[in-house]
Amino acid sequence: LQVTVTDPRTVALLFQPVLLRCQYQTVALDPPIVTWKYKSFCPTPPGDNGIVTSPGDVPDVTSPCPDAARTVRIVATKQGGVVTLGDFYRGRGVTILGGAELSLGPAAWGDSGIYICTVTSTQDLEGNNEAVAELVVLGKA
């Protein structure tokens, strides 16, 4: 099993459609389970309002912080042809297209963060089963 993200960093404008591209290769005959998970960026330091208005204002995601300091939630899961959305994403134009591409529909303020594409197959346990994509949503400059 080998999972890759085509664009590890995506910058999108508020209210524009977003597509995070995740691809996988597997020797399994049955379709795997694809899960996209969202993790917010680490909290901003005091005095920083966290609003991104230009690419130069992109948060520093290299400094690690524990998941307890972030918002973590399931975006969507796909098993066979059935896509199930996490509670936070119901009612939005969110789905998993093709094999494992996450379509977020129009980008919202809360969409900036780290997205983890995980592919699980009981028939193919070797290799790397997840990849990470970063999304930054910009407001109008």
How many domain modules?
1
What's the order of the H and E elements?
EEEEEEEEEEE
Supply the CATH superfamily name: Immunoglobulins
What CATH first level would be assigned?
Mainly Beta
Return the CATH topology.
Immunoglobulin-like
List how many beta strands DSSP finds.
Answer: 11
Which structural category fits the helices and strands? mainly beta
Helix content range of the residues, please? under 10%
Number of H- or I-type helical stretches? 0
Q: What distance lies between the first and last C-alpha atoms, to the nearest angstrom?
A: 42 Å
Which helices and strands occur, and which strands form pairs?
Elements: E1 2-5, E2 9-13, E3 17-20, E4 22-25, E5 33-39, E6 72-79, E7 82-85, E8 95-97, E9 101-106, E10 113-120, E11 130-138
Parallel strand pairs: 2-11
Antiparallel strand pairs: 1-4, 3-9, 5-6, 5-10, 6-7, 8-9, 10-11
In short:
The protein has 141 residues and is mainly β.
Descriptive report:
InterPro entries: Ig-like_dom, Ig-like_dom_sf, Ig-like_domain-LISCH7, Ig-like_fold, Ig_sub. This is LSR protein. One of its GO terms (cellular component) is membrane. It comes from Uria aalge. Residues 16-133 form the Ig-like domain. The mean pLDDT is 88. The protein is built from no helices and 11 strands. The strands form 3 sheets. A 6-stranded mixed sheet has the order 2-11-10-5-6-7, with no helix packed on it. A 3-stranded antiparallel sheet has the order 3-9-8, with no helix packed on it. A two-stranded antiparallel ribbon has the order 1-4. The chain has a single domain (2-42, 67-138), classed as Immunoglobulins (Immunoglobulin-like), CATH 2.60.40. The protein is mostly beta strands and 141 residues long. Strand 6 and strand 7 (82-85) form a beta hairpin.
